[in-house]
Amino acid sequence: MAARRLPARVWHGPARRVWLALCVWLALLVPVAAGAQDIVSARYTDPTTRYPHGVLGDTVEHAGLEVTLGDGSRRTLLWPQEIVFEDTAPRVMDLSGDGAPEVIVVESDQNLGARLAVYTMRDGALTLFAAGPFIGQRFRWLAVVGAGDLNGDGRLEIAYVDRPHLAKTLRVMRVERIDSVNHVLREVANRPGLTNHRIGERDIAGGIRDCGQGPEMILATADWARLVAVTFDGTTTQARDIGRHRDRASFAAALACE
């Protein structure tokens, strides 16, 4: 299913306070099925227009990342002026294999553009777990495809399209341990000529499916003429044509294995 960006809006005064209060009330109604300090959900907060890229249909991004924990409490990370979250929504998944989920996000620096980053809970605080490199230029972005064990070896990968409007290159990243605390996102494969987003679209097309033969990443060719299914064997990627691209319904059918 495509990752859709919720309509962005800068909330002011009472309306924003009422909305936040409602969110807290709803969170308290959710049954706790995880450890007290485990992340169970995440969302972007604190809308800002300080990074007016507009790649996702408007110039409103977010300065904050808020997670809800298993005990119903919340933790928030607020970036200073230099960085925003430029993304459709954060993704919660256990990447470390320890049973406690992490959060996958896209961050953009005022001068260096976007990077893929992963956050975790450590010592009661929301902390950077691992990150890839910034692209290196302002207003350069990446669009997440998805995350999962793409080759069945028990390790999880994160896939994204690097600059889906320019470089149009699929990159597969893996979390690797540096020491007992620190980790890094290391690229393990890439494939040019693929994309999943056009400027101004509020969602990211495609994703990851499993139609019984293992995970496949569903993307479009660089010219948006065809859909392709891409597999990763642990070292390289393979792509096969799965039909003509018409619109988002084409992606929906492919993801549903139709």
TrEMBL record:
Keywords: Signal. It comes from the Bacteria. Pfam families: FG-GAP_3. The keyword Signal applies. This is VCBS repeat-containing protein. It comes from Sulfitobacter albidus. The lineage of its organism: Bacteria, Pseudomonadati, Pseudomonadota, Alphaproteobacteria, Rhodobacterales.
